[in-house]
Amino acid sequence: MKTSGFFIGLLLLIPTVITANTLIVDQNGTGSYTSIQEAIVNANAGDTVLVYPGDYIEIVDFLGKDIVVGSLFLTTQDTSYVSQTVIDGNFENLRLVRFTNGETNNAVLTGFTVTRAYGADNDYISGLGIFIDNSSPVIRNNRIVNNYYDSWYAEGGGIVLLNSSAKIIDNLISNNDMAYMGGGIYIKYCINLLIENNIITNNTVFSGYGVSYGAGIYIDSSSFLTIRNNIISENDFNNAGNGGGIYIDESENIEIVNNSISGNGFWGKEGGAVFTISSNNIYLIGNLFYENKADWNGAGICCYTSDIVLVNNTIANNEAGADYGLGGGIYCNNSTPEIINSILYSNEAGVSGNQVYLDENSDPDFYYCDVEGGLAAFGMNDTVVYEGVYENNIEDNPLFQLSGDYPYWLSEGSPCINAGNPDTAGLAIPDFDLAGNLRIIQDTIDIGAYEYQFPAGVNNDEISREFLLFPNPAGGMVTIYLPGMQSRNATATITDLKGDVMTSLQIRNQMVKCDLSALPKGIYLVKIVNGSFVMTKKLMHY
After folding, report:
1. Mean of pLDDT values over 317-336
2. Torsion-angle region of residue 129: left (phi > 0), alpha (psi -120 to 50) or beta?
3. Nearest-angstrom CA–CA distance, 173 and 156
């Protein structure tokens, strides 16, 4: 017994090394497993389940394991593998991917199409495509599409998030139909959640005999959420509903930054782009709201009993209905939002307040905005006497370009150029505008979601000559921005830390994109040579 105890004690002193493994899943039988779930059952924390192309008709449950489950997109960055590697509900199953046992941000799902989930009348559970409860995984570079409820009053068509701090990044969430709330994404009791760089489009909700909510995104009883750099478009209602793009209820500290929110709200009642109720500290910064609709109130933004701040938004060409429409741009009821550096122009309301309608107990403050028609054109309830602050605003045509990739860019000569609040401290303005251009140039900021860029060939010595990399850290693509170009023949050289040249390119415009997908993950140096200007910066590629 003494000898045995000695050896046990000796073993306890020897460090244990656990090596992460890669488990191969291939339906052709060339891997270790033919089903994703079988591989997960046999995986340990830190392992990777690498899935070859195929149609996997199964439910994928991470079982509380912090593992990476990815298609060959994970190793190649070839996006064609996303559509070739399918987690398929076969119109029989729902909650096709499940995180319900405390998974953290170290659990990752990447590179799949999650589709054909189906919820029938007797399925009294919510969540069609991906279901997350008391877990916080990373959902990245997936397609969550064509999932369908054949029942009433169920929540969450694409993704359901409950009690979560997950990260939802770079996904397509589309054509998920007939949820009661949250056609694209349903969020409840969440904190520190990130929704970034997604396309959330063509999702629908169905009201049954009531009113449905949040065709694109539904948020309830949540806080400290960031919704950034997404395209939220064409999300609609089968009949009556509120919040075509985003619906927010009893939540606080929500940041909605640099999103394009358009074409939402068909058949909707209120809040074609955004609807907020009983919520505080809702920040809308640098967004574009256009061509959203509402039959009743607030085709752009509808605000009930909420504390919201709008900074550098463009709200244009939204339409509140001919018969009941109040507030084509913004509708306020028991709310006093603060609106700064924003454009409200070419919105329409069938009854009153093309740009702004103020219902009872509403006194928003406007600073450095461009509001078509000005204060005199506000629509107001008969009981309202406006007592808000209205300072340094203009009411001129903003001269949108109305063509190209960014039709709401400002044209040369726009009255909105350099007309924003000169004191931007505390406004939480992002470094770049909605098009990825530097947000503040020559120490001034424009009104609206876009910062005017000098025409090609115009040099301005006052523009900063420091070059910028964004995003940094970067995934597959990085943008190099050189605002103070001396010539149209700059060069960029990317080397590893040993000095070996990995790639080089010419920069003939102020902004150029560089594809990093062929490079190993790691830290690189980016050197710019432009006339006498030479500078090197560090870039992290993940």
Report:
1. 97
2. alpha
3. 12
